[in-house]
């Protein structure tokens, strides 16, 4: 027994002492890293081979991206809720526009951006149209007819509206302004 425990104990002791130098070298390493700037620091970090360091960087990056996504998503969510509420609501701006030879009355419509605009267009005599190129709108009301249509005023700016019908030369003179105030 004593024969066996003896060598084992010595080996264990030897192993322990063998491991000491590397341990103390590692313990000294941080000092070395702090004292040596630049390249040797980068070398020490990469040869230090810290996979956990890389992992930490990745998870930090992921957390950062998540935070950014959240920040980006919040106003979007608010916008979506606001929009749904707006869509459900009744038209916010209603106008009755009379078109006659050769003018629109009233000649100026003012709304706020994102308003739902409802227009009732009455042709008092011959056929006329309400055309806004910027909004790709062209609605025709036949002679003596009244039509209704809606659109979302999503682009701010001042847009010319006019009658694009060719039946009467002077319809060209019919025009007005749609003013959409930015939000
Ligand atoms: Cu006209």
In short:
It is built from three helices and nine strands, in the order αααβββββββββ. It is α/β, with parallel strands linked by helices and 183 residues long.
Structure description:
The protein is α/β, with parallel strands linked by helices. The protein folds into three domains: 1-49; 58-89; 93-181, Immunoglobulin-like (Sandwich). Helix content is 44%, strand content 30%. The protein contains three helices and nine strands. The chain has a four-stranded mixed sheet, with no helix packed on it. The protein has a three-stranded mixed sheet with strand order 3-9-8, with no helix packed on it. A hairpin with a 2-residue loop joins strand 1 and strand 2. The longest helix is centred in the middle third of the chain and has 38 residues, at 51-88. The protein is elongated and about 70 Å long. It starts with a helix and ends with a strand. Mean pLDDT is 72; it is low at 1-49, 67-71 and 74-84. Bound molecules: copper (II) ion (CU). Copper (II) ion is lined by residues 128, 163, 165, 171, 174.
